[in-house]
Amino acid sequence: MESVDLIIDARWIIPVEPDRQVLEHHSIVIHGGRILALLPTAEMQSRFSTHEHVRRSTHLVIPGLINAHTHGAMSLLRGVADDLPFDTWLHKRIFPLEQRFVSAEFVREGSELAFAEMLLAGTTCVADWYFYPDESARVAAELHMRACIGAPIADFPAPWSRGAGDYLSQGLALHDAWRDHPLITTALGPHSPYLVGDATFERIRTYADQLDATVMIHLHESAAEIEQSLAVHGLRPIERLRRLGLLSPRMIAVHFTQAEPVDIATAAQAGISVVHCPASNLKLGNGVAPAQAMLEAGLNVALGTDGAASNNTLDLLGEMRLAALLAKGSSRDPTVLDAATAVRMATLNGARALGLDSETGSLVPGKWADLCCVNLDAPATLPVYSPLSQVVYAAAREQVSDVWVAGKHLVRDREFTLLDPDRLRHQTTRWNERIGSHVERPA
Amino acid sequence: MESVDLIIDARWIIPVEPDRQVLEHHSIVIHGGRILALLPTAEMQSRFSTHEHVRRSTHLVIPGLINAHTHGAMSLLRGVADDLPFDTWLHKRIFPLEQRFVSAEFVREGSELAFAEMLLAGTTCVADWYFYPDESARVAAELHMRACIGAPIADFPAPWSRGAGDYLSQGLALHDAWRDHPLITTALGPHSPYLVGDATFERIRTYADQLDATVMIHLHESAAEIEQSLAVHGLRPIERLRRLGLLSPRMIAVHFTQAEPVDIATAAQAGISVVHCPASNLKLGNGVAPAQAMLEAGLNVALGTDGAASNNTLDLLGEMRLAALLAKGSSRDPTVLDAATAVRMATLNGARALGLDSETGSLVPGKWADLCCVNLDAPATLPVYSPLSQVVYAAAREQVSDVWVAGKHLVRDREFTLLDPDRLRHQTTRWNERIGSHVERPA
Prior knowledge:
2 copies of one chain form a homodimer.
Chain A: E1 2-4, E2 6-13, E3 23-31, E4 34-40, H1 41-44, E5 48-50, E6 53-63, E7 65-70, H2 86-101, H3 104-120, E8 123-129, H4 133-143, E9 146-153, H5 164-178, E10 184-190, H6 198-211, E11 214-219, H7 223-233, H8 237-243, E12 251-255, H9 261-270, E13 273-276, H10 278-283, H11 291-296, E14 300-303, H12 316-331, H13 339-345, H14 348-353, E15 371-375, H15 387-394, E16 400-405, E17 408-412, E18 415-416, H16 421-436
Helix pairs in contact in A: 3-4, 3-16, 12-13, 12-15, 13-15
């Protein structure tokens, strides 16, 4: 008998690799934070022993969800500005509140709120991207959550930075500070084609090449962005980036709602990843990204929630369901973007976008044990004919019972093991009071 | 001091009438099952006393949600057939399973599962419509849930009925059996224009006029329905119904995804209600009903989940959010279908569709105390700047803590007071096993 750190018995397991597989009455054997084996529970019992044996008899285990795009700290601005025109939302509400309130403390406490919400909902890995990225990185590391932290870059000053050069040097410092951390990676984050000029893009390309760094950018989010790029540069934004040499498999294009066939072809040829943020795109009136066409073109399409100021939740199970429903509704074809595809987008495709697919995103021996349990024993998810259908179309965040990152049990029976919910509530309430008096009420 | 049955103190209350009002630190005073008063908690303390005082200090109270369209018993078929073409879904999967399994027992136990799911998610009133409607009515009455039970009518035989005449006589018997029940009303439910001929529609019109009965019908659900009607009758379905004299404020048109301006004008002129079922319409590939255009035309638009075989949840909070997001995304205008409108659609508009708006749907003295508490004290719904935004864009079903119907506490701290969850689990598991061996697995 081989002694190991942890064994989880599950009613069902969806490992994501191989594609579409659903295992019944299997166990996951974990040692040193990594998956050692997946095998029938009956077989496991004769081969492995452990002091920590978790039995989940009505649960489905899936890889931990990967939120490939958010601005975590903006959870403190959840609900400050809904149902408004995009320009009013951004320039009259969000930017002034950020100018007044964003600080290292805001980012630390806002990120903690966001990561807490995500962990409870089964997210084990997040691409976070906001001012004071070092603070978010520290919070993720403290909570033992996996994160790719983007350093924002723009040609205008912000609460955190005086301008392009300053952003870049802080981004490089972030990269150096976290380069050897087992849970944290970093990325360069030029905000968008409309807030970054060619000279800055060229410097980003140079650094990205030297460091082999991931580059994340908001791309083709709104119709106005395309029009402005055509007017100023005579090019669609993605074509401008292509000519600047920015497109590569390290690039993550977020949103891509305005994606014509020519844009999809350019993206597919360069092998970039796309992060589909369906709730945010709908809520801000930007439409629906053609996720099915992108998948058919061979693009790697992951899922993101965007920030809580434009969603207003950080719930990957919800985005999975919405992505599947929208693809069917907008194509008038109920067979597209099926349940298995939705689960892969929220797990393995996210890992691939972040360059982490050899480490996480599926339940394969050798990868980190990043996973979550979804309890299907509830009126909303019974009976169970297809666990894949159930997790995409019927289950919701409250059914996530347990979460592990690199084998560490972070959520147990819906309770945090590391995080103090009273402290979180207390610090969030202080921001609620401080910011609340500056929030305009709807008429 | 006036002694009353029940007082609920809430951090926030959204009464829906007046429109957009949010009350803070108010109490709801309930006596004889009805709302006696809404007033500031401080004022209540000097005027009323009670043996049952419920204090909800981090909660929002809203009217109980009204699911204006479902087929409750189909919860036993949840997940049997996803990601399939519409015709395969209906004719190759759903109809054969219904032929084999639908019985009085199926409807009784399936309805109980559905009503349990809905109650836990804050739904206090449901328009249910399936075979053996007397069974669903009995289950709703036993659970003390408010329901409008539709008797199905079609020109073809089904597990429950031998044909049009039989359907009609059973529908009339249903009406007679429940006419004096305080919680249950009934309706005539011709399936759709394509499964009901003119002669049967004329009989339905006669009975509806005599009984002043609500008539519910699936209308303009798919593009194929419009094409078929044009081919067979030379008329769009709603125009055919208009000529048959079926359109009136008692009529509820469910789906209405294929609604051209001329259809909306016809519907608005007749004063019918529409039930928008956004998740089901997307999932079956039927597109998005133009909810905003209907609201602007003055139509009463309510919300429904449809059955669990095409959604796959019965979650009105989720439909509220989806309706708001879709209206914004499809119109490219983030200001349309705002949070207050979404809440009204899920409450008062549903009551109006069912002819119950003098009895329920808003928190107004004199109406039944049908209401639910949503606990906003969770990482996903903090901070709270706008309770209206929060309940539509951030809250989810698990945050429903308490539910009352006509003043009776049916869900207390997320636990049923009347229903035995073990019995429900046991009987659902039996159906899972019985039906499961007949469900085709996806390839």
